[in-house]
Specification:
alpha+beta; OB fold (Dihydrolipoamide Acetyltransferase, E2P); DNA polymerase, domain 1; 5-stranded mixed beta barrel
Amino acid sequence: MIGRLTGIAIDKALDGSCVLDVQGVGYEVSIPLRSIPRLPPPPQPVTLHVHTYVREDSLRLYGFESILDRSAFRAMLGVSGVGPKLALALLGDMEAPEISAAVARKDKKRFAAVSGIGAKMAERLVLELKDKLPEAGSADYPTVMAAAPAPVQGRAGEVVGALVGLGFSRLQAEAAVAQVVEPQDARPLESLLRKALSTFA
C-alpha cells in the first residue's frame, strides 16, 4: 500500500488528476481540485500523502497536501453513501479543519453548499462524522482554521469572472487562470480568456 509519494508533477488536469513522476515512474493520483493550482511547476518536487483505494476491478491513488486532509478523506469514506469521488469533492471545497468545524457547529448548510451534496447527505455527514474527526482548535490541528484563500483580483479576477459566467465552477476557473495569467498581467482580456479556455481542452 502506498502512503506517500514525492516527485515532480509532470501533468495535471482540471478534473483533479495529476501524474507524479517518482524516479521515472509516473503515478496517476487524484487530488482535491483546490490543490491543482498549488502544485509546484517542474522541476520542483511535491510530496503527497496518499490513500490507496483498492477494489476488485480497480486500484486508485488519492493524494493530499496534508495528513489531516487524508485523515478527513478516510473518515468520510466511512459515511454511508460517500465514495471517493464525493469525499474528494468535499475536500476540493473545504479543508480538514473547516470540515471539523462545520461538523461541530452542525452546519448542514455548509455541506449542502458543495456540489453533489443534498440536504439528506449533509445531515448524514454531520451525524456520522461526529467524533470521527479531531475537534477544530485541538492539539491535533496546528490552527483552528486554515486561512481562506485571497480572492482573485485584477485581470486574473476578470478572467475568473468570465469563466464563471460561461458555466465553469469558481474552483475550475481559478485553477485555469493560475496556469495562464501572470501577476500584473496586462494582456487583453479576450486573449487571456482564450488561453484559459484552452486548458479545458
